[in-house]
Structure formats: structure tokens, C-alpha cells
Design goal:
Chain B: Pfam families: TAF1C_beta-prop (PF20641), TAF1C_C (PF20643), TAF1C_HB (PF20642). The complex is a heterodimer of chains A (about 400) and B (about 850). Chain A has about 400 residues and is mostly helical. Chain A has helices at about 10-20, 35-40, 50-65, 70-80, 90-110, 115-125, 135-145, 150-160, 170-200, 205-230, 245-250, 255-265, 270-285, 295-310, 310-320, 325-330, 335-340, 345-360, 365-370, 375-390, and one strand spanning about 235. Classes of the chains: A mainly alpha (about 400), B alpha+beta (about 850).
Amino acid sequence: MSDFSGELTRPMAEADQVEKSMLSGTGMSIPWLRKQMETVETGGKKEKDFAKTTSACLGLIQEALLKHQWEKAAEYMHSYFQILEDSDAGKRQAAPEIIWRLGSEILYYHPKSNVETFSTFADRMKNIGVMNYLKISLQHALYLLHHGMLEDANRSLSQAETWRYGEKSSSQDILINLVQAYKGLLQYYTWSKKKMELSKLDEEDYAYGTATQNMRSHSWKTSVNLSALIQIPGVWDPFVKSYVEILYQIVPSHKLMLEFHRILRNSDKEEHHKLGLEVLFAILDFAGCTKNITAWKYLAKYLKQTLMGNHLAWVQDEWRSRKNWWPSFHFSYFWAKNDWTEDKALACEKALVAGILLGKGCRYFRYVSKQGHQGLKKKMKRMNRAVKSYSIVDPGL
Amino acid sequence: MDFPSSLRPTLFMSGPLGLSSVPNLSFMCSWRDALTLPESQPQSAENVAPHLARDLRWEPETPGPFPLLPPSPDPWDPGPTAHDLLFRGGHQSCRRPRATLDVTEQLSRFLWDHGDIAFGPLGNLMQENFKLEGARSRSKTKTVVSVKRLLQDLGGHQPWGCPWAYLSHRQRRFSILGGPVLGGPVASLLGELLKEELAGRWGQLLLDDAFTGGALAWVPGKMPLVGQLVYPNGGALDRLCFQEVSVTPGSDPQVLGDPGHIQLRGPVRQVVTRTVQGEALLAVRSDYHCAVWKVSKQGRPAPLQVLQVEKGATGINLSPHLPGELAVCSRSGAVCLWTPQDGLQQVYKDPETLVFRDPSPWRWADFTAHPRVLTVGDRTGVKMIDTQGPPGCGLLLFRGGAEASCQKGERVLLAQYLGESSPASLSPTLHLICTQFSLYLVDERLPLVPMLKWAHGLPSAPLMAQLLPAPCPGAPRPLLLGGQGGQLQLLHLSGEEVSVPRLAGPPQSLPARTDALSGFPLLEPASQRRLQERLDAPTIGLAAAVPPSASTSGLALFHLSKAGDVFYQHLRLQEGSSFCRDAGLPSDPSPEPHTPTAAAPTPSRTPTPTTASWTPQATAYCSRWLKALLKVPLPPPVWTAPTFSHRHLLGYKEQLQDGGKVLAGLRAAMTQGRLLRQRDVGSFPTAEPPPAPESGPEDELSERLDEAWEGRGADWWRRRQGRSLGLGHQPRRHKRRTQLSSTFSSLSGRWDLSDGPSPPPSPHRTSPVPRPLPPATPHSQGLTQELWTRGVPVERQQTLQDYMARLPSSGLGATSAPPSQASSIRSTPSRQQAPRKKSRMGF
């Protein structure tokens, strides 16, 4: 909030911030360098009073904001407007951006502010320092949207869409695309609203025809508006919801992976079966999935199945990289006790896996199998038998 | 682990930092975060956007933190300040002020204080060419110069740094001739090293990355309300203390018993603790060593292993997944996975930085959601390394560049894994990255583009951060960010199951240690300054405990300062915060009706921040601590060179004819190159104490102030007068008066000498015994004038006066200041320039 990062205060950043704060030699800029230097009296020229008061005022506003004293911040803001008359051209140019940021923050939280106040402020700021017109319009529209004023938001975006200033720069282009995309999203809302209305109408009705017409034109507009933006690299989730497909590849911890495993398991191909085992092991690598009972159940069942199918090598392949940390990560005494008290079914599944992978002597298995539980007697027996017959650990060793 | 259903719209840019001419839309202000777009249900579009809690605030219970533990009995020296390191003169342009290191001052201080070291060897070589008295002699092979006159001109010593100091022609000639020989080697040998050292100190003053991560830890104990604070103490921060503290909600914490401690061989830089699978571990990083302890259920630490890091360790972290596993990184660029059982496994090594070239050797390592994947960080970025994969492979998690819209000169200062296996309202894949401008939350599944960015604007380096558990289920989690200067910020993070992490309310600042000043009683200036200096000490550790409580959500916050002080602050979640009141409904479907013409909100919804006040218990803690602090001795003043008068020495040479013991001692000292001490030259019959480092008048002043503070000022004055009378201080006062009167008399017609009596005797000449010289250059012009007038017969004085009047005023004209006045002027700067104790950099 206080540094008004690079792009926003480009003129100031170049003239002031960077050079004033650069630590010689390292290339690192130190925002508090100036403060340190001010503790030393130098014989040089002093900062002008004007600059001093404005920077002090800025500090006070920030302090008030961080203390949530919105009224106080608003009062200081009155005085801060003097920066618009700074003789330093760079500072003067950067001022509207700072004022917009601080002002909108104050007005968003101020107990006495309302939508009108905010809109008035936004409209004024749009025209002070034209460079911010698009950004402020967009934020204003989002604010209105957030307050449920879809039509006003749409109006604000439409105005911004047609706005041009000077030579078209790349940043302006992107902003206009974004404005159009948000507009498209608003149109999408209207479209789906219309669709809802349509579903209530009778097909024979005269109104139905006009409504369909309306709907089609909306969907066309929406698609036009959205398509421009998604050409630009970025994250456009609300606009395009097609990212799920790629998840299988990049996020092994995703819960959809269990489904993926099921598909693989039921496949005819042998390599799919091997991949299915890999997927299960990989899910359980993650700290967030350690208590996923489905994953453990699948693994227990699938291990048995794999070993029955004489694929001991597959299991050993997966186990090799994990045998030095899975025992303490999953199968420690602590977890055995913890799992048993929290979820007996999970403990049983885990114990079975532990028994297969580590042998009967492992702490987890021993702990769980010793907890004679009435309802689980049969299960325990089965577990013991399974471990005896499938364990990959050579009992002779 | 669910992937967020919809990510915030972000532009993806690639390129170096400082490039972002493209608008960065996501991270502008705190409310912007709340405006995530509703997805598909237009009917509920008005309500679905999570509402930003305006009144979400942690309220401090006292205006500032207060000292919890007694101060360390060792004296503490705040070290050099910017004032000591930077050049103070010269002309600075207002627009581009540059920090210039003052090598000259430090060098001349060194020459002044340690002349024996600086000039001793050369002096030894040249010894035979100089003698203390007699006429000079010249032979074919060598010239021997008498330095008697030179020493006389020096007259004791030159007031250091005095711009008006007078140089005689002889001195100037000597300095021109001898300067290159005497000064050259010293300056060339020492200058380079000194400059390097000063640059290092200055860099350290701006950013002391040794304490990255913080050196204070809270180890939860067996009972939920009792825990142990682990922190370094002692002057060198080399004593690791374990203090049991019980935090009871609703009342002040209780310190249980005396702290246990372990003496280490180096300063503690970082203390990390984690409880994994019920096993509490404690890891400590020193400059060249790392150590790990296991803390038993009873709170007793048992050492597991110590590791020596040859190049210097920069970071240590404990695994949140496997007990006893650590990540250690060193200045050499190596990152190792360390387990006390299996030893070290080098995971990554690269002396170069990750993204672009940066000279800092600082490295950092932490864990990720996958127990076998580590993050490796340096100033330019953070990379994820799979320890099971082939060496060198990995994926950048954060890049100092356009992807995160970094500014020019922005550098990574801290990287921290935020996930825990505890029930979390945030995804366990989040990482916190702090730079000097902003903080970023990055999801390891979606690297490079931050999920959240907040420009913290702290006025010092944010080197400590801690994500705290939610005070009640469903509430946003507080993220504590601490700057080295003591500033604290608290962010409220929320991001349930499938939503993107976001700010749940406007961030807030918390009181810093300097805010504690109002809790202390008013002190007399010297002690007040000392207290303030102590409170201003950099923060090197931060720990927080959330005592479980049914009624109020509280937060116990501990600060550790570089002086070894542990301060405590209690925070309470604002009553108005709906999170805990509404039995934990994080996304209330209709938090408030969003009517377009929103009526003025009721005042109860946005209560004004209540002003906290000091509780009697807190002030009691403060005053008890202060009492102990004032008993702590001041750090011993840095050694100051004894000064002794050369003229004085010359005088003795004449007196001590018996064997020249002084001379022998002097010779011996010179040949050995050591300091001449009194016992080398025998006892001086009227030994003059060397001028003290000018603390006399100040002591008298503070004594007087002390007394005046107690209301006994008049008594003191009377006592003092009595004492001075008794001790025969009359002559001094008399002397002062004569000096003064001489000044005045000289102002009223100095040259009118016709009425006979000679001018008031100058103290310089009248006192027959050697006395302490005023720390000033005798004004030789004035002296000469006096000598002139004295030797001239009365009848010729008028002629002389006329003659003098015709001389150009630059000569011995009457315009020159009278001697005593001049000398008093000249002596003032030297008195003002009382040697500052801390600026000597330990020479």
C-alpha cells in the first residue's frame, strides 16, 4: 500500500524511489534507506517544506489505515490533496494514482461512506490524470458489481470500452480487453437470467420468440467479448473454465486422481495397471492426503491385487524411493495410536498396507493388530492372513 | 486437497523485474481482493462474493508490549549507527542524496587513538634522525633533527577535528614532508580494509539478514496453557534460555521459575521449533554451527546432534512432516537435508543465484507439502527441488520478475512454507515470500503467479513471519509479519476448501516495542535516553501462542530484541468480528443486504478502535524491569588514548637529570613499540592526571540533575560549594575569573599600556608548576604579541603602536582576537566534541 509498486508510479519510481533507495553495489533497493540517512545531518540542501509535509501526511494516512482509523485517515486525506500542486512534475503525475488507492481504500471502509460517495470520488478521479481512466473505471465497475448494481457496472464498463487516449499502448490494449471481458461476463449473467426466464415460458407464447432472439444475441456478444482476452497469457478462470483437464498431468495430489486410478485399474492394458499403482503411491506422498481413507483402501486392495498378479517388481519399484521415509511419515507409533483413536477403519487399512510393505514386525501393524476390537475381529483375522501371504518383506531376513 | 475452483484473473507476464508497465490488476488494495467474481449463478451474484469484514481486528490490550522477563545483567551496546558511518559534511543534492561512508573520520580516529600502532614501526625506523632537544646536527651519513620546537608548537595536543586548529609553519612543513612517509602506508594498508568493513557495517545496519527467521520460539508444553519460550540471552546472545511461561486467557502471563540455559559457543541467530507426531524438536542456527535438540514431555532439551557449517549457515528449518528432519543451507550455496540418524544429504548446490546475478550469499531452504520436495531460495527467487530426482532439477516457485510484478531492486528476504498437517483452513500448499516491498502467497501447484500480493510497506526488513492457527473454526487465520525495526503487521487470511486465499479484512498494524515507552514512568534525561535506546533495539524474534479458550479469542505475542529483552503483548479478537460470534460461519450467505443506496451503517457494526490503556500489572512489570535495567552497568567505554603533554615531557627532561630514567623508559617503550606507561618512567612527583575522556563536566551535570530531580538541588549546590571551598578549589575559580577579566580588559583598550602595569598575567606563563593545559592550541600570535609588548621599553611603545597601526590588518594588527578570547573560542569545539563512545567501531 505504501510503496505504490513500480508500474503505478513509474515517473516517481524512476526519479525518486529507486535511486534514493539503491544500496550501492548490490542492486537491491532499500525503501528505508532514506529514513536512515535522515538521521544523519548532512550539510546539503534540505528537503523542501512542501515535500516534507506531503510525505509526513502520507505517512499519517498509512498509519491511520493500518490502525483502521478511517475517519482520521479521511481527515488527513483532505490535506494530502496538496500533492496535486507539487512543483515536481514526477510526483504530480504519480499523485492521482496514490490518491485513488488511498481514497478508495478509505471510502470502502469508512462508516459514513456509501455507494454514491464512492461513485462521485471515482468519477472525479477518472478525469484527474487521464492515464488512470481505465483502471479506475474497472475498479469502480467491480465495486458496483459487488454491491449488486449490475446495470451501473455495465454502464461504467461500456463507457470505458470506448475511451481512448493518445497513442494506443499495449497496456491500454490489455486493459480494454479486460474491460470487455468483464462486460462479457455481465452479459453472460444476463444471458443465463434470460435462459431461466425462458424455461418458465411456454413455447407457444409470442414472447418466447423474442426471448430466444434476445438470448442468442447475448451469447454472441459474450463470446466476442471473452475471446479477445483469452488470447493473452494469464489466468482467466472466471472467463474460461477449461483448466480442469490439464490438472491430471500437473497436480498429482488432486482428489480427482483417485478417480483416475479407478479408470486405470479397470483398463485392459498392463501399463495402465502399473500407472494405477504409481498414482496411488503418489497421492499418499502428500501431507494433505495422509488421512484419505479411500486412498488407503484402494492401495490396500490394489497391493493385494498386484501381488496376486505376480507383479512384485512394480511394488518394489514404488517402495524403493519411499522406504526410508514412509515408515516414519505414515507408519510411526504415533500415527498408529492417533489413527486408532480417531478412525479405526483407516487404521486397519493402513495397518494392512504397513504389514504388506514392512512385514509383520512393523510398529504400526503390531499396534493395530494388538488392539483386539470386538467388531473388527474378523477383519483383523483377514488382515493377518493377507499380510502373511502377501508381505513383500522376506520373513527370513 | 482441492484445487481452487476458480483462480483470480491475472495477467501472465514474463521478463525481468521492474518491467511491469502493464497494469497489475489483482493486487491493488485490500478490498480489491474481496471482489472475486461470482461464477455462474447470476441469481446469487449479489451475495456470493465473500464479504470483507470491516471490523475484523485484533485489539491490543495494552498500548504497547511490556517486558516480561528481567533484562539481561550484561551491558548492551547498540553498535554503530548511521551517524557513525556516514559522511556528515559536504553538499548533498536533495533529489539524489547518496549515502557516503566516512572512511576519513574513522581513519583519523584510528590514527589519533592508536598512533603507536599506526606510526610505531616507522617511528622506530626514523628514531635516530630525531632527538627531543638540542640543536640539529648534520653529518654526511645522517641528519638529526631536534623536535623540541615542533612539540612546543603542538602544545599538548591538537583538538581533534577542529577546523580552526592552528598550524605553525614548522608543523606544516613537517606534515608536508613527513605526511607521505608516515601516512601513506597506514592509509593504503588500512583504508581498503576499513572501507570494506564500513560498507559491511552499513549494509548490516540497513539489513541484518543473520537473524532471518527469528531467534525466539514457543514450545508448547504438556498442558495447553503452559509452554516454554526459547531465546538467546547474554551480551553476545550465546546463552540459549528456556523459560517456562503460562499464558492464561484473561490475565497476564506467569513466568514459572527461573530459566534453564545452555551456554553455546557462538551467537544464536535462529531458533526453530516444531512438534511433529507429538515429538517436539528444537533447532538452533549460529553463524557456523547448527544444532538440534529434542524437547521431552517435561520440557527438558536433550541434544541430538551438532553440525559445523564451514562457510557459515544462513538458514535452518524443521520438517513439518517427519520428526527430526531438517533443511540446512550455507553461504556456499549448498542445501542439505539433515537427519540426526542418517546425517547429511546434499540436495542442491549452486554458488550462483537462481534467476539473475546477485552478490548476496544468503540462501534459504524450507519444506513443501511433499516431504521429499524442498524449496531453495536466494535473493532472486525460490525453487522447488525434488530430493529424489536427479541433482539440479527443479521448478521455480517464485521468480523475482515480471510474473509477480516485482519492482526494480526488489529482493526476496524470507520464504516460508505455510502448510501444516494440523486442521487448516488454508490449503497446505501455500508458501509465503517476503520482499522489502510486498508479501506474496504462492501456491506450489501453480508456481510463479502469486495467489495474493500485499504491499506491506514496512519501514524495515520483514524477516519474521508466522501463520497462526485460527482463533476458532472457520475464522480467518492471522498471519503475523515482523520487521527488523520492530514494526508488526497482522493480515487476516482466509481461503476455505475450494477458494483462493484472500485477505479477509484490511491488514492492521500492531504496537511495536517502542510503543511501550508510555508505560514507563518519566525518567531523568540520561536514563530516559537509555531506556529509549533499549526499546529501539532491533527485533530479532517473534513468537505467538494462541491459548485455547472457550470465551474469548486471545493471542499472546512475544517479541525478542537484540538486547535480549523479551516483551509480551496480549491481543484480543474484536468483539464485533462476526467470525467467532456466529459459531464459525465463514461465508454467511447474506452478510449484509447490498442495497444500492446503502444506508449509513449502524455504528455498532464498525466500532471505532478502542484505546487500550495500561493495566496496573503491566506498569508493575515495566517499572520492575526498568529498575533492573538501570542497575545494569553501562557498556565499558571504548578505549580512549591517554593524552599527555609533550611540552610537559620536555620540562621533565630538564628536571630529571638523575640518570634519565624517563628517557630510558621512553626508549624502551619505543623500541618495543608499546605504550609508555607511568611505571616505565618511575613516579612523577607532580604527576598530572591525563585528561579524562571529557566525562567530568557531564558527570557533574548528571549528578546535579539527579539531585534536582529528587528535589535536592539546592542542597547539592550548597554541598558542592562547601566541598569546593574545603578542597581548595578557590584558585581554579580565581584563575577562571582572571581569564575572563583579561578578556574584558583586552577588549577595552589593549594597547593603552601607558599607565604602567603589565597586562593581567596569562595563566600560561604565570603558573610555575605544570598544570593541565586547556585542550586548546595556544594562540601563538597572541603569545608573540604579548612577548613583544613586554620586551619593549615604555617610551618606545607609542612608536611601536603607531607602526603597528600602519601595518596591513592581516599582520599583527589589533583586529586579531585577543589571545585568551581566541583560545577560549578554540577550546569550545573540542569540548563539544566529547569523544562519542560508540563510534569507535571497537578499535
